[in-house]
Amino acid sequence: MFRWAAFPVVVIFLATLSGAAQAHTGVGDTNGFAHGFAHPMSGIDHILAMVAVGLLAAHLGGRALWLVPLSFVSMMAVGGALGIAGATLPYAEVGIGLSVVAFGALVALRTALPVAAAMAMVGFFALFHGHAHGAEMPQTASGLHYGLGFVIATAVLHAVGIGFGLLIGQIGQITGRRVLQMIGGGVAIAGVAILAGAL
Fold first, then answer.
1. Cys-Cys crosslink for 15: which of 19, 99, 117, 193, Cβ 3.0 to 4.6 Å?
2. Rounded Cα–Cα distance for residues 45 and 132 (Å)
3. What are the structural domain ranges in the chain?
4. What is the DSSP track for the chain?
5. Which tens digit of pLDDT belongs to each residue from 148-187?
6. What does 35-83 look like in DSSP terms, one character per residue?
């Protein structure tokens, strides 16, 4: 049986295996939609950040369930367009690492952010994730298909986080809160490891 106390250790182990922002390879024969879809799924930094956004949305509840992920996806698309266009975004890797730390910490601390503040924060960090996706688009890929791929993959990861967060909420108020805090703490710690690799 899985012991929740070991979760932070597992997350840190996975983060150190992946290296900083490892989804940014842009290698292989796959292009277009499939490559765009695979890009967020192939790096622990993106996976942790996007699932944590879903967890945060589930924690905040109400309109945040769809507004917070929608803000991330929308601004990520803007960042992706900038990356595809060749625009430079300073400290993109640092921004990605910081996003994992920030999202994990918000979940761990059960911060009751106003929905507008949560939207603004996730939207800001989404620019960095989107830029990384766009900048790594293969030259032979269609920007539209590639962008659609990473947008859908991101939405899937958000949905996983929301579903997991809502499921945790069903296991009891005290136990659920502790489990969510441990997961958020593990994500934040992994973010520190990712950030250290980006500096």
1. 193
2. 11
3. 41-198
4. ---GGGHHHHHHHHHHHH-TTTTTT--SS--HHHHHHHHHHT-HHHHHHHHHHHHHHHHH-TTHHHHHHHHHHHHHHHHHHHHHTT---TTHHHHHHHHHHHHHHHHHTT----HHHHHHHHHHHHHHHHHHHHHT--TTS-HHHHHHHHHHHHHHHHHHHHHHHHHHHTT-HHHHHHHHHHHHHHHHHHHHHHHHHH-
5. 888 999 999 999 999 999 998 888 777 888 999 999 999 9
6. HHHHHHHT-HHHHHHHHHHHHHHHHH-TTHHHHHHHHHHHHHHHHHHHH
